[in-house]
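Table S2 (continued). Query chain:
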Amino acid sequence: MKKYLVGTILILVVLAMIAPAAAQVQIPGAIFQDDKIGLEITPDGKMVNIEDETVKVLTPDGAKMYQEIVRSWWADSQTLTIESAEVIAGDGSSITLKPEWIKEIQPEDLQNTPYKDFRLTVLTFPTLAPPCTVKYRIVIRNKEPMAGKAFWSGSYTQDFSPIGHTEFEVKIPAGTNMNYKYVGEPQVEPEKTLVGGVDSYVWESTERPALEREPFMPALVDVATKIMVGSFNSWQEFAKWGANVVNKRAEPDSSLRSKLRRVTWGKNEKTEKLKAIYNYVISIPSLNEDPGLRWNTSEPISRIADTDKIAPSDRALLLAGLIRAAGYKATVVLAASRDFGKIIKDFPTPQTFDSLLVYMPEEDKFLDPNDPYTAFGEISQGLLGVDALLLDPLASAPIKLPLISAHDNREEMQAEIVVNGDGDVEEAIGLLETGINRQVWASILGKAKGSELDRLFQFLVRQVDMEARLIDFKIGENSDSKVKIDLNFKIPGYARKSGKYLILPQPVIQTLQFNSILKQQGTRLYPVLLGNPSMEEKRIHVVVPDKYTVFSTPEDLTVENDVGSVQVLTKTEGNSIQTVVRMILKMEEVPPEKFQMITDLVNAINEIENEVYLLEEK
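Corresponding output:
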């Protein structure tokens, strides 16, 4: 039997709800009784960050989460001090954190790298037993001011756990310019005082209930109220400052040019050289511990050109440096991934971003070097359509990264199904990945061998039916634009006999699935995040056994709205059934007022999954 399958697996991105501020992590079974965050700027421009927490631990889950508190810092440019730490038991007795309960860790895989100064400080409370209260105060001081004495900070006034009292205090030298914004609610003015040549700004709030959770909701950064402060007056000012910091680090030197010659040896054309540079950079393994982007270092990126492992932020700088060394233009780009949320349009700050890319203006291409499954000139799924800023002195405002269309993010599937008289099904499926998932498949197929592929494809066919058994498979001709896989498998007893009828369920599993809670909701507080526009089409050919005729098939179905569409068309001819199932998601984010449209699509998909082909014995 000839088999084919054309398709890209539809991926729904459920955004992780994370908070950038360490003090604001959602803790099950705990209440923030007193949540105090502070920023101090010394007269010479050094930043001091203060975290002063009192947390009521109510359950074993809460105790487990707070048994260890981990903070990261840089030994060469910062100091971390635990000014106090104690546990107050339910009977009121207090246990002060003992010295042996505090560990300063230098991650092993960073010890002989340019990141050797990265540190983790771990506070361990081995006596934590609910109900109890954990109190601690941690201070991180920068040894030197940021470039141009820049500063920024922020604090949340809401979380997924209740907050009894929250306070954010900023202390800066009197007369220092500072911009601030209260996000999520009408502007709240701080209480401002001047004492001893220091301007103090304090925001306070009390009795903040826990935020509600919804499936497919935005990240905490997009739904919680917060206060942001910083020294930048405009995005252009920030872009100019950031470009100065980054360009110094990515400036080509003799070491970087030497690396370039080795990487591009034998490559003469521009595209060949660029792809060789890109493939080299993405091939460097990432560090197990990500030290994050450093704004307070001027260390040349060439220092890591020969390293065994690399930090994600430095990967983009290395790529930009090598491209510049080759004589081409390259601009580093800051991006806010979907997990991190949207930027604040009218408040420039580095806190907004968590990813770095490279932009080549002459080619009008964005390069995403931190996703090994992303091809040259493409952007990984989590960064499609997100907010970004070119670190260029002329960049006056953030931009949106490109978002591919549903048609370009496409999965096509062709299935040929033979039913025998006993109800066994032999099914052949061809998958052709032509969307954003194809690079993942290309990498998997390129690395997996023999038994590994057997196990992988057996797993895939069991997604169709738990009783399915793989017969054979074939990997087709693959390229940068597509990945093709043919699977042949058998499902014993898949068609069910009922008197003179043979009942065949919808034979190909649908990949568009929504949480059951989502189906039951009537209204929404937050937008529904679906990831990226997508198109999925299945063409199913069922061969009916000779002793049966087709008695009935599902009625044609079409549902279309602003969010997407679902269409099912069935045609019977002789002893075969031809069915086309087409599903399209047009939007990556659905506002609450259009939530009912998602429900309509979900109901239509549910109808498809419950439909059957009914065959009658002659």
